[in-house]
Amino acid sequence: MKWIQIPLGPLQTNCYIIYTDRKSCLIIDPGEEAGKLFSAIEAEELKPQAVLLTHAHFDHIGAVDAVREMFDIPVYVHEKEANWLGDPTLNGSEFFMAGKIRAKAADHFLAAANERTIGDFNFQVFETPGHSPGSISIYFKEADFVAAGDALFNGSIGRTDLPGGNHDQLIKSIHDHLLTLPEETAVLPGHGPTTTIGAEMDGNPFLNGF
């Protein structure tokens, strides 16, 4: 299993295309600039199977409908943020001069599970709230990486000053669900460069001393 990181939009939100040798793929957090995603998918001759959202802030959902309609695939989000897709107040676009971003309702919900299967993909879902109430992290155990959304970054953590954010809850989410993964696990964050669990355990100033 492999992945492609594509920063999108003015906030350079990372979208990830997760794909197998059989050319099936999942699209995580298509935030904007759908054309860039289409080009990458076409270049690799991939076959999208679903869109997974780590959370529903505007910079992670801007291209959801374009992707869903292009490939006729379902969209998954945590139930706590089901209403955020169509509400610019909840998804934050109304407050960040990003226009009023709306997407159609998700087709399915993702919640904590020991294992989920979508098409050719097996993964675990961790509920990692704190940045937002319905934030999740998606762990691909066999491939040793986790898509952490805006929970954990390289040397930092997600902001918690937005509606529904909670700093203590975020720190607990990270320690309970992410730092328990093997240290070699790659962390695919919602913004910025990738990192590893071990690197964040050793050097992340927001986590040391908890």
Explain the overall architecture.
It is built from 6 helices and 14 strands. It is an alpha/beta fold and 210 residues long. It is globular. It has a 6-stranded mixed sheet, with helices on one face. A 6-stranded mixed sheet has the order 7-8-9-10-13-14. Strands 11-12 form a two-stranded antiparallel ribbon. It has a single domain, classed as Metallo-beta-lactamase, Chain A. It has helices spanning 34-43, 58-61, 64-71, 88-91, 167-178, 197-203, and strands spanning 2-8, 13-19, 24-28, 47-52, 75-77, 108-109, 113-118, 121-127, 136-140, 145-149, 152-153, 156-157, 186-189, 195-196. Keywords: Hydrolase, Metal-binding, Zinc. It holds the Pfam family Lactamase_B. Residues 12-191 form the Metallo-beta-lactamase domain. This is Metallo-beta-lactamase domain-containing protein.
Keywords:
210 residues; Metallo-beta-lactamase, Chain A; 6-stranded mixed sheet; 21% helix; 30% strand; globular
Structure in a nutshell:
The protein has a six-stranded mixed β-sheet with strand order 1-2-3-4-5-6, with helices on one face.
Q: Average pLDDT across residues?
A: 96
| Main sheet makeup | 6 strands, mixed
Class by helix and strand content?
alpha/beta
CATH class: Alpha Beta
CATH topology: Metallo-beta-lactamase, Chain A
Number of helices: 6
Q: What is the helical fraction, as a range of percent?
A: 10-25%
DSSP strand (E) fraction?
25-35%
**Overall strand count:** 14
The stretches of 5 or more residues where confidence is low (pLDDT under 50) are none
Instruction: Report, as a whole number of angstroms, the end-to-end distance.
Output: 34 Å
Q: List the domain count as a whole number.
A: 1
